[in-house]
Structure formats: structure tokens, C-alpha cells
Amino acid sequence: MAGFLLPPPLILLLSAALGSAAQEDQVNKREKRIINGFPCPRGSRPWQVALLNSNHLHCAGVLVNEQWVLTTAQCMLRAYNVHMGSEELGKGQKVRATKSFRHPGYSKQTHVDDLMLVKLNSRARLSPSVQKVNLPSRCEPPGTECTVSGWGTTSSPAVTYPKQLMCANVSLISSEDCREVYGDVLGNSMLCAGHLDTSTNACLGDSGGPLICKGTLQGLVSWGSFPCDQRNHPGVYTQVCKYVDWINDTMRKHR
Whole-model pTM? Predict the structure, then answer.
């Protein structure tokens, strides 16, 4: 594997582009992010949401229950329009949200504890197309097959946004192997996933999106290499299994 080390200033640059698809005019000068993916089967991701800034794609997330969405801390806005219930943006339900609760340990410089809960102003209507995600009861090991999904760009460096939700199959990669790429920038609460011989990855607009392994939420898209489609540079995710207590405690405190 290439010994590429991503310094903190580049992490900030990358995460800003990953998170906000509305800044498309600036993206051409940066990196883009699902690459080498496929359309998600209809109805296969009923817990997937999009966080919209007005009507523009900003980030992704997952529905934890009727009142709460889980995403990454880098996606914070004053207000969101939360899309759910359809693979196509603009269809399905749209719920307003104006309250965000970042993990108190979050660092913009290092992306440690890149996690946030967003409380919906009104309850989501559960249905076959709108369901709660399964939080993990264990951390899955390296080699586990997973799927990441989002509405982010499907090409890099040119930006091409899909009309429907896209998926990509990836595998969990050990911290030891991932540190050969990112060095000490990789924190203990970060999870790497990809295929070391391909450029399959998440990209611009996918931040906060779910990494599902064996039916449970194991990761949220956080950051990665510059640009998105580099071979042997896996995506980096917030490792959700290490934050289940914080998620439940935060929702309980802010009912």
C-alpha cells in the first residue's frame, strides 16, 4: 500500500467538500466524492435520509427513530430539510429540523468524534419506505462485507450527481492496514472501508451517510483521500459501535 499521509489541513479541505454539495462551483478546484457504485435496490435503504440546505443536498444521515437523525458533526447547520422515504430526492417525506447536538469531543482539525444527532421538529411517519436503522451491538471485524450509500457525486474530478440513491459494496479494513495509508491521522474511533485494489468510495455529498454491515450501522462517512477516486485509499468512517451509549444518552436527555 502507498505510504500516503493526509495532514490535518487536507482533512479539513476534504471534509468540507464531502459534506456540502451546494458548493459545487468550488468543488471543481478540490476533490469529489459514491464512486464505482450502483443504484440501490428500491426499498432497500428505508432508514437513509438526506440533509438538505434549503433544497440543495448538504449531507446524508440515518433515521434512528421517529424524532432523531444520526449524521456526522461536520454536517452541522442551523436548520435542515430532512428528506426520507424515497430513493429520489424531492419525493417522499420532508421534515424540518432546527436542533443539532454534536458530540462534545468533536474536533474540526482531526475529525475525532465526528458524530451528531439532529432532532426533527415533527415526528417522521414510519412506513415500509421509512424505517429506523439498527444500531450495532458489536463492532464487526476486518474483512466484513458492507454497503455504503448516498446521493453524492458518482465521478471525480468531474462532478456528476445521480438522480437516485447509489450504493457501493466495500469491506472493513484493519486499522493497521489503514494506518499504512493515513498514518497517525487515523484515530481510534475511526473505521476504514473499501477495496484496496479499487477506487470504490464515497464522495461529495455523502458525508454522514451509512455504512451498513450485517444489517447494522457500523459507520458514518467522515473523510478520505484527496481526490476521492484514488486506488488503495479507503474511505474513513466514524465507528458507530463505539458511540451507542452516547447516542442513547443524548436522545434521552433531549426528549
Answer: 0.85
